[in-house]
Amino acid sequence: MRYLHTMVRVTDLNASLDFYVNKLGLKETRRIENKGGRFTLVFVAPPENPDAEVELTYNWDPESYTGGRNFGHLAYAVDDIYAVCQRLKDKGVTINRPPRDGRMAFVRSPDNISIELLQKGAALPPAEPWASMPNTGVW
Amino acid sequence: MRYLHTMVRVTDLNASLDFYVNKLGLKETRRIENKGGRFTLVFVAPPENPDAEVELTYNWDPESYTGGRNFGHLAYAVDDIYAVCQRLKDKGVTINRPPRDGRMAFVRSPDNISIELLQKGAALPPAEPWASMPNTGVW
Questions:
Q1: Is the whole model's pTM more than 0.80, yes or no?
Q2: Which of A1, A48, A58 to mutate to test the interface with B (most CBs of B within 10 A)?
Q3: Which fold has domain A5-59?
Q4: Residue B37 burial (CB < 10 Å; 0-12/13-18/19+)?
Q5: Which residues of chain A have a CB within 8 Å of the CB of B46?
Q6: What is the pLDDT of residues A49-72, one digit of tens each?
């Protein structure tokens, strides 16, 4: 038995690819367009384990997607949590839970999927602007 | 950047472990009890890629978890989709989308997390009782 992917639905494929690829740093691994079913599936994955995909399901007929509490978040380990959060912040992403501890941060996708970022290995020394940055919203 | 886990919240830890471990076939990889925070985290993962975990978050103070459409499902590849569905069925799990095509099935966790099962490699030849089994509910 082998883990393949976590599927999430997206209301705006371009906004989601901008978030997951350009901002978060995942790579597009493959794409399936189904004209009959009127949907597009785009798979994205982290460079280190490209087999662990996220399947972005984009239905061509508009739907609005709300969240539920049974799903929590997707979690990724990163080499430098400050560098990733800085890149996200510079590109306009709210850091809902800044890495005040040099170890853990949370952001949200355009469809409110919560993403946890964890520093690989030991926590980094506390550093500004993160150390004094308050939380924003929930994650 | 490396995928770590998908976190889901569970209302009944024993019922969830029964589903994810005894019925679905994942293995418990580690467990964290936090008395101060009044929560237990149990990580489960498939034998083939135990680094791709699901984090089951159990909050000791009762909460009710509903689902949302932004999260879709977790997907696993299996060696024999009929054998897995038979085991699930024998243990009382509803096969919401039976593997009529020998290739794909959907079931749900006790907290309504949708789980996709995909046959590894080529689809199996159609076989009963699956080939003529109708869908149940949504997934």
A1: yes
A2: A1
A3: 2,3-Dihydroxybiphenyl 1,2-Dioxygenase; domain 1 (3.10.180)
A4: exposed
A5: 1-3
A6: 999 999 999 999 999 899 999 999
